[in-house]
Design goal:
The protein is 40% helix and 16% strand. It is built from 13 helices and 13 strands. The mean pLDDT is 96. The structure holds pyridoxal-5'-phosphate. The site of pyridoxal-5'-phosphate (PLP) has 13 residues, from helix 3.
């Protein structure tokens, strides 16, 4: 039978799926524990009164742009931005606009966000990885060398990095930006937790992009809203592969309602960060634990070879975590997302119970 599809797809043996346990306490996907509808219900319905879903165009598009410009600051305006279905869709557009040949690749550190691989594969590109050092720093010289190839189209730095949770050294990021000769993407999906941004640099240069998300700080993973920021020249090139109606008016209306209530969400970020620090401190005191500091809403930790046992024990207690041990640097590690104060307390009590029985 003829193969009708792109040749490189033939050898890929699976579709992208996310395999996580379904529990009452979903502490596995770095989501927010708060349902945004409870917070913006009235605002959203007010906005919807003037939105006609029978139309392709709505004034809401201009309004969300204005609100985003105000929120992002740093001199960004509408020419510096693309938005759509999550930070993920920004990756898709960016990779699509950069890919020229099947040998092309993007460069990422490893371990890092798994979807760099899925999206590069989706557009027929490869990914090359440079392993992080055991302290989650990276070798600048090696990184730069890997970019010096005509097929290296983009250097990606996830800051803070998922799943390790750490911020990369700011000066080192600047060195990468200054020394590589290809565009650099900084993934700032966890920006509101880390409060570190490269946006000042973005505005000065025509080879640097930032992506951000509404899935974490703005509590809206299911909404699918994210944005990319860059110099006007870069953004106008990427916009050539963006479809006209990629972003739903309904989603934009909800995202607008969120931005009009941003203080409430940002206050929740502070609460989540505080309770994340509390679980970190408590976990850190348990015997046999290995744990890494974090600038995000999640914590990587391990009990060595016994981690899988804990993972399964917690599922029985209706708590889902993520197993992130695929990379040797994180062998046997689990990742817990900070939930509500009560969820965190429940999680910690169960871990403590397991530890006293296990060791
Ligand atoms: C580092 C990183 N980048 C991007 C994303 C995707 O964000 P979004 O839900 O906005 O597509 C995630 C989601 O977990 C992430 O951790």
């Amino acid at each position: 039978m003829d193969y009708y599809f792109r040749k490189d797809l033939k050898n890929i043996d699976h579709t992208v799926s996310i395999d996580v346990p379904r529990c009452d306490n979903m502490l596995c996907l770095n989501e927010s524990p708060y349902d945004p509808y409870q917070i913006v219900h009235d605002e959203f319905h007010q906005i919807m009164k003037r939105v006609s879903l029978n139309r392709y165009f709505s004034e809401v598009t201009g309004e969300i742009q204005e609100e985003l410009i105000k929120y992002v600051g740093h001199g960004v305006d509408s020419h510096n931005m693309i938005f759509g279905n999550g930070a993920d869709e920004m990756l898709y557009y960016l990779f699509t606009s950069l890919r020229d040949s099947p040998e092309d690749y993007i460069l990422s550190l490893s371990p890092s966000y798994f979807d760099y691989k899925s999206y590069s594969r989706a557009v027929g590109m490869n990914v090359k990885f440079l392993n992080l050092n055991p302290d989650f720093d990276f070798d600048l010289k090696k990184y730069i060398t890997l970019t010096r190839n005509k097929h290296c189209r983009l250097a990606v730095l996830c800051n803070p990095n998922n799943p390790t949770g750490n911020l990369l050294n700011y000066e080192k990021i600047l060195e990468v930006i200054n020394r590589v000769e290809i565009p650099v993407l900084i993934d700032e999906t966890y920006y509101e937790f880390s409060k570190v941004t490269l946006l000042d640099e973005v505005m000065k240069r025509d080879d640097l992009l930032v992506i951000r998300s509404f899935s974490k700080a703005f509590s809206a993973a299911g909404l699918r809203f994210g944005y990319m920021l860059g110099n006007e020249k870069l953004i106008s090139e990427i916009a050539k592969v963006k479809t006209a109606f990629n972003s739903s008016i309904l989603v934009q209306a909800f995202a607008l309602a969120i931005l009009k209530n941003k203080e409430t969400f940002l206050k929740k970020v502070e609460e989540i960060s505080k309770s994340r620090d509390e679980i970190y401190a408590k976990l850190n005191l348990l015997p046999h634990v290995k744990i890494f500091p974090t600038a995000t809403n999640f914590i990587p930790f391990s009990f060595g070879r016994r981690s899988d046992e804990l993972f399964n024990f917690l599922i029985e207690k209706d708590i889902a975590l993520r197993q992130i041990g695929a990379h040797p640097l994180l062998k046997n590690f689990l990742r817990v997302t900070a939930g509500t104060k009560q969820q965190n307390q429940y999680f910690f009590n169960q871990v403590k119970k397991w530890v006293s029985a296990a060791f």
